[in-house]
Amino acid sequence: MGLETYQKMRDFRRTPEPRGRVSKANRRRFVVQEHHASKLHFDFRLEMGGVLKSWSVPRGPSLDPAQKRLAVETEDHPVEYLKFEGRIPQGEYGGGEHMRWDSGTYRLAGEGDALSQLERGKLEFELDGERLRGAFTLVRMKGRVGEWLLIKKQDEFAEAGWELRLRKPVGGKETLDAKAKGKAGGGRQEQEAGAGRSAKGARGSRGAGDRGVRKFDTGEETKGERVVPVSRALKAKELKGDVNVRVGVEVVPLTNLDRVYWPDEKLTKGDLVRYYDEISKYILPYLEGRPLIMKRYPSGIRGQSFHQHDVNEAPDFVRTVPLEVEDGGGHEVNYIVGSGKATLLYMANLGAIERHPWHSRVENLDHPDWFVFDLDPGEGVRFETICEVALTTRDVLARLGLESYAKTSGSRGLHIYVPVKAIYSYEQIAGLAEQVATAVARERADAATVERSKRKRGRGMIYVDHMQNARGKSVAAPYSVRPKPGATVSAPLEWAEVERKKIRTGDFDIKNMMERIGRKGDLFRPVLKKKQALGEAFERAGGLLEGGRARGARA
Ligand code: MN
């Protein structure tokens, strides 16, 4: 138990929240906070193990035993948070006003200590607060690891029909239910959010039209602050400070636009946002409907970075999907799903430099619609050699009857994509990719390897990485920026360019990518259109490795 996640997720130069530390004392205090983030919710926190175990309760707690309230696990908070009230700036994690709704102490009721009860998935306790009193249970929902129910038990404090009163009324309404149903503007937001979730995330594509916006509501937290159409806001030569931009019907707060992300090039967060705004039409089709792995660089490419899987506090317009974290031992959190431009810019504002989509889409998560080879060169490999190995990969795939497409990784190597019908399992595809990579490594034994251990690989070798074809893995999307010197971008290539071996991965960056698209168009478009069947490839793949040696290194 610790506060590392809590601290990494926040920029304490901007947020008034306490940095905090793990405390030695354990005084069994609790707090319930009313949090006017982009989505109003309540945070329920119990002191134990030196921290505050925390849950986000969308509808708030209830004294009515009939009202079981969803409570989503969030990161441990420091005990200093018991006293915290204040306004977290827009654009920061959980931006919005935070106020104490209730506080007091609790007494454990169930068997065993608090932490072991939690581990078992059922915590029983009695609250002694101003508003909340009596016995409660927190129960983990079966099969949904991060989700719990907060339930009032029957006792003298239980109250059928009890209604939660907000401390800060919203839209003139004092209760949460009234707000949810009829808040000015809230209706629209709810409708939109709902539509977005059911309509395969198709929303946001209308973001292109900044003018002609329909009835527009700036929302609670942007009241009184100016909202500028995104196209106009990003026209400024130098982007500075904070601005709320209108993207389609959404408002995206952009903050600290002058923060330097690439020190050598003096490129800022504003430059990153501007790039994603310009490129949105081209990159979005590769992100649409796919869970995105979010790695944040809030202080630029030389600062600390961290993976943020849980986007529990994202604004309404951001589509999310609960998924198990791959490395998290069955822990389930909300992933951002690629959708419109507003989400693209929202992520950029969080310092997410890259776009890392899954190989499959939410509607069909178990079946990737492309697979990839990541040619990752060791020290001192000439780019010409990387091009040669890419061509060998293309040719091996061609022998299986498969077309493939190349792009720069934006780092040092090349990526090769094979678009497929989304009907094969990750396991089937990983098996095929391994056979192909192994064949490539055999044909170019002088330059390429499938050895996973960096140490054993030998310097000067290109790793034909086929291991990214598992569920939850990803490579940087086409047109994704990379957190590398030069603000390089992953650029789709023509095979003829790879054959000429003249291009370099550093040739493409956030300043010239649009110009290249202007000349070449979107070279990766076939990756979305060409849905290749693999039946024949599966059959022929076994043959790849027979007699492979006879071909010689330069076949
Ligand atoms: Mn919160």
Shape: globular
Strand arrangement within the widest β-sheet reads 1-2-3-4-9-8-7-6
Q: What is the number of strand segments?
A: 27
Number of helices: 14
Taking all Cα atoms into account, the compactness measure Rg is 26 Å
CATH topology description of the largest domain = DNA primase, PRIM domain
Which structural class should the secondary elements be placed in?
A: alpha+beta
Q: What is the level-2 CATH architecture name of the largest domain?
A: Alpha-Beta Complex
Mean pLDDT: 86
How are the elements arranged and paired?
Layout: H1 4-8, E1 29-36, E2 40-48, E3 51-57, E4 69-77, E5 86-88, E6 96-108, H2 114-120, E7 122-129, E8 133-140, E9 147-152, E10 165-170, E11 173-175, H3 176-182, H4 186-198, E12 227-229, H5 230-233, E13 243-247, E14 250-254, E15 260-262, E16 267-268, H6 269-287, E17 291-293, E18 295-296, E19 306-307, E20 320-324, E21 332-337, H7 341-349, E22 356-357, E23 370-377, H8 383-399, E24 405-408, E25 414-419, H9 426-443, E26 448-449, H10 454-457, E27 462-465, H11 495-500, H12 513-520, H13 525-529, H14 535-544
Parallel strand pairs: 12-13, 26-27
Antiparallel strand pairs: 1-2, 1-6, 2-3, 3-4, 4-9, 5-6, 6-7, 7-8, 8-9, 10-11, 13-14, 15-16, 17-21, 17-22, 18-19, 20-21, 23-25, 23-27, 24-25
Helix pairs in contact: 6-7, 8-9, 9-14
The structure holds manganese (II) ion (MN).
